[in-house]
Design brief:
With 243 residues, this protein is α/β, with parallel strands linked by helices. The protein has one domain: Rossmann fold (3-Layer(aba) Sandwich). It has seven helices and eight strands; from the N terminus they run H-H-E-H-E-H-E-E-H-E-H-H-E-E-E. It has an eight-stranded mixed beta sheet. Helix 5 links the parallel strand 4 and strand 5. The longest helix is centred in the N-terminal third of the chain and has 21 residues. The N terminus is likely disordered.
């Protein structure tokens, strides 16, 4: 499916990430930072799933019988674990190159994931039990319309998990200046002025008829790597439900 014109997709951002698609699954490639970040994000999401859907933490497939939507899915770094947790997964991304790589990677894994090169506001799917969008809000042209699209896709008793960098001096130094200058993140990936504070994001979510029920920070140490934290200065995750 081709991408319709959209007010939220930034063509330059889509082209930037599309150009990185080929080595998205290389843990030492241009997406290495996401590979290091993913286990921490998955633990947070799993805890949110268990709480929202009253699942036992020992269950291997807590999303069995549930529909999940990952918006800004890249090449499927989150979609594949969600499918292994039992969900019927749909992934949306603005870059057709990412969708092609995602499909090619999922097939040999035996994972039946529906991938679409489509904007959230052009997506007609509804009733998703889990909606995720991680490290995407800082790359869209219209965060308000983007959040409204996420809300429209959610089931009334559904769960949303979003994450994004905070707009602080620390995030500018670590994510924009240091990480890109040292090659840990490809140059041009982040634009500090597009980062969103937790207060700003919560206001957008509230305006879309949603309620934030948990917020956790993501901290980073050279030796320890990424970890959940009470410090929101660098990056943060939010668990969201319908108000």
């Amino acid at each position: 499916m081709t991408k319709a014109s959209s007010s939220t997709i930034n063509p330059g951002e889509a082209a930037h990430f599309g150009a990185l698609a080929a080595d998205w699954w290389d843990p030492k490639g241009s997406s290495a930072m996401l590979h290091r970040l993913n286990p921490v994000r998955l633990r947070y999401i799993r805890d949110a799933i268990d709480l929202q859907f009253h699942r036992d933490s020992s269950l291997l497939k807590p999303l069995a019988g549930k529909k999940a939507l990952d918006v800004g899915c890249g090449a499927g770094l989150l979609c594949e674990p969600l499918a292994r947790l039992g969900a019927l997964v749909t992934g949306l991304d603005a870059a057709p190159e990412n969708i092609a790589v995602a499909r090619a990677h999922a097939g040999p894994q035996g994972l039946d994931i529906e991938y679409r090169n489509q904007a959230i506001e052009d997506f007609d799917g509804t009733g998703f039990d889990l909606v995720t969008s991680l490290e995407v809000l800082e790359h869209v042209d219209d965060p308000r319309a983007f959040v409204a699209g996420l809300a429209n896709a959610m089931a009334d008793d559904g769960l949303m998990v979003v994450s994004t960098p905070n707009r602080t001096a620390l995030s500018k130094f670590l994510l924009v200046e240091l990480a890109e200058r040292t090659g840990q993140i490809p140059r041009g990936t982040h634009h500090h002025e597009q980062f969103i504070t937790p207060e700003e994001l919560e206001k957008l979510l509230n305006d879309a008829g949603l309620q934030v029920i948990d917020t956790r920070g993501l901290s980073y140490g050279p030796a320890s790597g990424f970890a959940l934290s009470d410090n929101l200065a660098l990056n943060y995750l939010m668990t969201v439900v319908k108000a």
